[in-house]
């Protein structure tokens, strides 16, 4: 039996491949390039594009901004205006920008989500993050970030609050009755009078209910508190693609957590990060991977990237020795665990060139070969799909075309992914199969 699965795309609103031969050279940030990307993804019938974000220039690698700025790791633009632009330039593709519960006031975020879901005609989502960097906290008047588990306790209360704000208007509160002269029925709009440990809000939201009523919620929950939050609220979860066994174990755990609180697990789709490399022949694809992963600038770029995410200075470690066993962080613990993996005998260089921060599952070959491999992995895992991204975390038109016009048609021929949209709103895309 064919296991049909979903496809999403993981995007950074940074300069495209400015130092390569297939990009725009980073000429501008009008968003035009990303609207082109979104239209290509819509043509390939992807469920959504998820736009990552960070709120700082990192000094984690080498205790300096040099490498972050040199490689363009964290200089990036706000994803929400781009999401609006993408929504206006497409008609079916879902768009999910990242916004942090640590720094957005809850009322402001709830109102923003509702507004953009109207503009996107029900195709808007919110990637819920707690932020994991002290440098971000310092941009908002704090000395350092809250401790990891407290961040998630605050996020859980934050989610309760914004959920009540979205529900402060009953679905049929807007009557628009010409005869009675009533726009909205005041008996169907309610204050929420929320008062928790961390947040307080009167409500109601002063925006009318959006097409989805609440945005589609995405989250990358890896740690126990993160998994609990995702089980409660997420419509789609982002997870590293480590091994088939760990992928299946993660999905099974999330399903068990959802069932324990009365949620239907089929209402939440787990998408695994992957970076397929395709070419006309397997030899060409392997040569391409080797060329990318052995570039010294790639190694430095990736170490600067993982340092900024985990708040660990990986410049202090010998590239050709295994990492210390006792690495801990107040940053993104799930990302750290995915990066170091279970085989602690690997050197730091092997970790960087073996994962690309996105996948330990080596999808590399012709489009047909990779399509078969992806289908086999999904069959063993049980679902639900892949969140694709460029292996070097910086996109160019060539890689995009290889995926949308090479790999995806091969997947469609096998009945593994959709060939047409049958729904119009994002949550419905995810629940279609």
From TrEMBL:
<dbReference type="InterPro" id="IPR036661">
    <property type="entry name" value="Luciferase-like_sf"/>
</dbReference>
<keyword id="KW-0560">Oxidoreductase</keyword>
<comment type="similarity">
    <text>Belongs to the NtaA/SnaA/DszA monooxygenase family.</text>
</comment>
<feature type="binding site">
    <location>
        <position position="152"/>
    </location>
    <ligand>
        <name>FMN</name>
    </ligand>
</feature>
<dbReference type="InterPro" id="IPR016215">
    <property type="entry name" value="NTA_MOA"/>
</dbReference>
<dbReference type="GO" id="GO:0018529">
    <property type="term" value="F:nitrilotriacetate monooxygenase activity"/>
</dbReference>
<feature type="binding site">
    <location>
        <position position="98"/>
    </location>
    <ligand>
        <name>FMN</name>
    </ligand>
</feature>
<keyword id="KW-0285">Flavoprotein</keyword>
<dbReference type="Pfam" id="PF00296">
    <property type="entry name" value="Bac_luciferase"/>
</dbReference>
<dbReference type="InterPro" id="IPR051260">
    <property type="entry name" value="Diverse_substr_monoxygenases"/>
</dbReference>
<feature type="binding site">
    <location>
        <position position="222"/>
    </location>
    <ligand>
        <name>FMN</name>
    </ligand>
</feature>
<keyword id="KW-0288">FMN</keyword>
<feature type="domain" description="Luciferase-like">
    <location>
        <begin position="7"/>
        <end position="384"/>
    </location>
</feature>
<feature type="binding site">
    <location>
        <position position="53"/>
    </location>
    <ligand>
        <name>FMN</name>
    </ligand>
</feature>
<feature type="binding site">
    <location>
        <position position="223"/>
    </location>
    <ligand>
        <name>FMN</name>
    </ligand>
</feature>
<dbReference type="InterPro" id="IPR011251">
    <property type="entry name" value="Luciferase-like_dom"/>
</dbReference>
<feature type="binding site">
    <location>
        <position position="148"/>
    </location>
    <ligand>
        <name>FMN</name>
    </ligand>
</feature>
<keyword id="KW-0503">Monooxygenase</keyword>
<protein>
    <submittedName>
        <fullName>FMN-dependent oxidoreductase, nitrilotriacetate monooxygenase family</fullName>
        <ecNumber>1.14.14.10</ecNumber>
    </submittedName>
</protein>
């Amino acid at each position: 039996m064919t296991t049909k699965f979903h496809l999403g795309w993981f995007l950074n609103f940074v300069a495209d491949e400015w130092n390569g031969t297939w990009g725009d050279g980073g000429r501008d940030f009008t968003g035009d390039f990303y609207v082109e990307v979104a239209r290509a993804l819509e043509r390939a019938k992807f469920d959504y594009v998820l736009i990552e974000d960070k709120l700082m220039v990192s000094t984690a690698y080498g205790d300096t901004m040099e490498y972050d700025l040199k490689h363009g790791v964290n200089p990036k633009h706000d994803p929400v205006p781009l999401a609006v632009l993408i929504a206006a330039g497409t008609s079916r593709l879902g768009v999910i920008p990242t916004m942090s519960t640590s720094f957005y006031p809850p009322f402001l975020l709830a109102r923003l989500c509702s507004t953009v879901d109207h503009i996107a005609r029900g195709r808007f989502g919110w990637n819920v993050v707690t932020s994991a960097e002290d440098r971000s906290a310092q941009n908002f008047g704090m000395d350092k970030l809250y401790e990891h588990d407290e961040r998630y306790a605050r996020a859980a209360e934050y989610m309760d609050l914004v959920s009540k704000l979205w529900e402060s208007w009953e679905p049929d509160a807007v009557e628009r009755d010409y005869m009675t002269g009533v726009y909205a029925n005041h008996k169907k709009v309610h204050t929420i009078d929320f008062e928790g440990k961390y947040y307080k809000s009167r409500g109601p939201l002063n925006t009318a209910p959006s097409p989805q009523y609440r945005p589609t919620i995405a989250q990358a929950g890896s740690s126990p508190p993160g998994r609990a939050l995702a089980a409660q609220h997420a419509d789609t979860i982002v997870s590293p693609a480590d091994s088939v066994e760990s992928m299946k174990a993660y999905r099974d755990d999330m399903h068990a957590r959802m069932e324990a609180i009365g949620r239907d697990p089929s209402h939440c789709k787990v998408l695994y990060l992957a970076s397929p490399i395709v070419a006309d022949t397997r030899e060409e694809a392997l040569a391409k991977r080797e060329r990318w992963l052995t570039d010294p600038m790639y190694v430095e770029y990736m170490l600067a990237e993982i340092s900024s995410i985990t708040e660990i200075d990986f410049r202090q470690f010998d590239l050709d020795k295994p990492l210390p066993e006792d690495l801990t962080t107040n940053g993104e613990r799930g990302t750290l665990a995915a990066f170091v993996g279970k085989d602690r005998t690997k050197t730091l260089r092997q970790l960087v060139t073996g994962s690309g921060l996105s996948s330990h599952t080596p999808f590399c070959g012709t489009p047909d070969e990779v399509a078969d491999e992806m289908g086999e992995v999904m069959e063993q895992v049980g679902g639900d799909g892949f969140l694709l991204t460029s292996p070097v975390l910086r996109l160019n038109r060539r890689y995009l075309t290889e995926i949308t016009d090479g790999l995806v048609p091969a997947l469609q021929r096998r009945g593994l992914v959709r060939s047409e949209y049958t729904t119009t709103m994002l949550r419905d895309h995810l629940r279609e199969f």
